[in-house]
Amino acid sequence: MTANELREKYLEFFASKGHTIIPSASVIPRDTDASTLFTTAGMHPLVPYLLGEDHPGGKRVANVQKCVRTGDIDDVGDNRHCTFFEMMGNWSFGDYFKKEAIEWSFEFLTDPKWLGLDKNRLYVTVFKGEDGIPRDEDAIAAWQEVFAKAGMEVEVAGEDEMITGNVRIIPLGKDDNFWIAGQTGPCGGDTEMFYDMRPEEGVLAGKFGELVDGFRIMEIWNNVFMEFNKTAEGKYEKLAKPNVDTGMGVERTLAVLDGQYTVFETELFKPIFEKISEISGCGYQDSQETEKAFRIIADHVRASVFMIADGVSPLNTGAGYVLRRLIRRAVRYGKLLGIEKDFTVSVAEIVIQKFGDFYGELKKNRETIFAELKKEEEKFRKTLENGLRQFNKLSVASISGKDAFDLYQTYGFPLELTVELAKEKAIIVDEKEFELELKKHQDLSRTASAGMFKGGLQDSGEETAKLHTAAHLLLAALRQVLGDEVFQKGSNITPERLRLDFSHTEKVTPEQLKMIESLVNASIEAHLDVMHEEMTLDAARKANAMGVFESKYGETVTVYSIVDDGARIISREICGGPHAKNTGELGHFKIQKEEASSSGVRRIKAILE
Ligand code: SER
Predict the structure, then answer these.
(1) Higher-pLDDT residue of 190, 426
(2) Is residue 29 in contact with ligand 1, taking CB distance under 6 Å?
(3) Rg, C-alpha atoms of the chain
(4) What value, to the nearest 5°, has the Cα angle with vertex 302 and ends 564 and 342?
(5) Which CATH number fits domain 3-265: 1.10.443.10, 3.40.50.720, 3.30.930.10, 3.40.920.10?
(6) What ranges make up the beta strands (E) of 363-426?
């Protein structure tokens, strides 16, 4: 089955059950939801309806939603993780509940008219109950009934989570079978469906978690029964009407239908791999390294194509930063395959061919996608070249962890690239010392961010408010020009001028100061609204807000955001305010002085004219 056929079947099935088909929302949340940078699940754009608002499509809708989850970035390369994926979902807004949802899932999966999967290879988990919420007996009963109708008597696993004999229903705790997107909002227990990937290995038996980790069974579908709204105080309030939110992974389901062991063996990735092979001269499965590199390149370029189509550009902050990281990581892995020329555009072309029919925005934004990829790849290659020059200057005998770390931090050389290059010259890299350096550095950044701005203004007059906003724009510009290692170390604002101390080891050059100034002025000239909202500290952290995070959980903070017209987050900081309402009020920003403040800390004084 092709992905196009699978999506069509899914939507057709749920249309036949009275669902309105709705299009995918953008991968960038467009509403005022500041808690995530990306749409991470099908439910994300539907939260208002899950909380009770009327959906124009009625009480039953179904869709295929584009999702981005970058928390899994380091897992990409195994057999089932992707940073971009498609989630098919059927939704009940206070309409049908567990019984129907489970019946329909079973029917769609096993009926030969639909997917025709083998019911003997199906296993399900349910919520075992925790925190005063009882075990989901309704879901257990519904599963037993559908299996019984199909002629199978199925049993429920005990506390040991062992699958033996007729056991097919495994109750699990909150970590596995309770779904919430982020910290607050609609949530509830869920039931997840798993498929036996290797029946040829004999009757399936063993501890559930070990069978998942050993890739013997793979999750393909999750039905969430949303009965609660979790408040900022951590309370679970019963929703007036419970909802159903389901999510079925297109890639994983295709793998299962194809009898494939990994999502990367599906028809979605094959043509992408062929392209990478053509460019690199390597085969996908030449070695474990090539396999990993192919998967990472394919996944990252695919994710980048979708992000750019939805309006993201590579930047040093927010969603743009994630995009930058994905493109650069793809280029680095290309380098490991020996690709020396720009290649992401050629790979993107295949992605657009493969996905452009269903997602018209890819075709429509084709030129922008190519231009952004090309620009970022070229920029990164220059950085890499400088790094290579630096590498060649290093000792011929061995490379210390400090040198490797310098290559990593200043030139964006990942450790594996340094090791690879060193190998060619038969030099050893002190990888242990590198890890120590990395850790030291991370601790330092944490301390630096802890020293940041604690709010508190001497004067809350209009001029001060404007300078306060300018200080946020300045910090964002500093990070964009000098890098993400820059953190605010202190600030002092009077109605006449602002002073900002920030971590940076070298003098900021006149050219860099010019760039910083013009970035701030560009944001001023764009007349951007300065938005603020209250959120929990945890939500602020999730939203990538800069600020002090050493406070207690559940505390509410105010987050000020400046977002450009393309929905890109220019600046997002936890702050006491007050601020200008719009950057247009600021006038003209001018840096007056740049000097050392203390060791590793620079100071900028600036005014608004
Ligand atoms: N929200 C659930 C998930 O993302 C089901 O769609 O898995």
Answers:
(1) 190
(2) no
(3) 26
(4) 90
(5) 3.30.930.10
(6) 398-399
DSSP secondary structure letter of residue 536: E
Per-residue pLDDT band at 422 (split at 50, 70, 90): confident
Ligand 1: which of 246, 248, 250, 251 to mutate, judged by most atoms within 8 Å of the beta carbon?
Answer: 246
Structure tokens at 23: 């299009």
| CATH 3.30.980.10 segments of the chain | 462-608
Closest to 252 (Cα-Cα) out of 12, 67, 22, 56: 67
DSSP 202-270: -S--EEHHHHHHTTSEEEEEEEEEEEEEE-TTS-EEEEEEEEEEEEEEHHHHHHHHTT-SSGGGSTTTH
Question: Could you tell me what percent of the chain has a pLDDT over 90?
Answer: 59
- 3-state SS class at 156: strand
- Which of 179, 180, 244, when mutated, tests ligand 1's pocket best, judged by the most ligand atoms within 8 Å of its CB? 179
- Region 122-142 average pLDDT: 95
Q: Delimit the CATH 3.30.930.10 region(s) of the chain.
A: 3-265
Over the chain, what is the mean pLDDT? 88
- Asked whether the beta carbons of 178 and 130 are under 8 A apart, the reply is yes
CB–CB of 335/412 below 8 Å?
no
pLDDT band at 303 (very low <50, low <70, confident <90, very high): very high
Whole-prediction pTM = 0.69
The length of the chain is 609
Beta carbons within 8 Å of 242's beta carbon, 6+ residues apart: 94, 97, 188, 225, 226, 227
96 to each of 12, 101, 137, 139, 244, how far by Cα in Å? 18, 7, 17, 13, 7
Whose alpha carbon is nearest atom 6 of ligand 1?
A: 247
- Class of the CATH domain delimited by 462-608: alpha beta
Residues 6+ apart with CB under 8 A from 562: 469, 472, 473, 476, 523, 528, 529, 530, 531, 569, 570, 571, 572, 583
Q: Is 427 helix (H, G, I), strand (E, B) or coil?
A: coil
DSSP letters of 88-111?
EEEEESSS--HHHHHHHHHHHHH-
From CA 40, how far away is CA 25, in angstroms rounded? 11
State the Cα–Cα distance between residues 576 and 454, nearest whole angstrom.
8
CA 403 to mean position of chain CA atoms: 31
Q: Are the beta carbons of 570 and 589 closer than 8 angstroms?
A: no
Q: Does the beta carbon of 339 sit less than 6 angstroms from any atom of ligand 1?
A: no
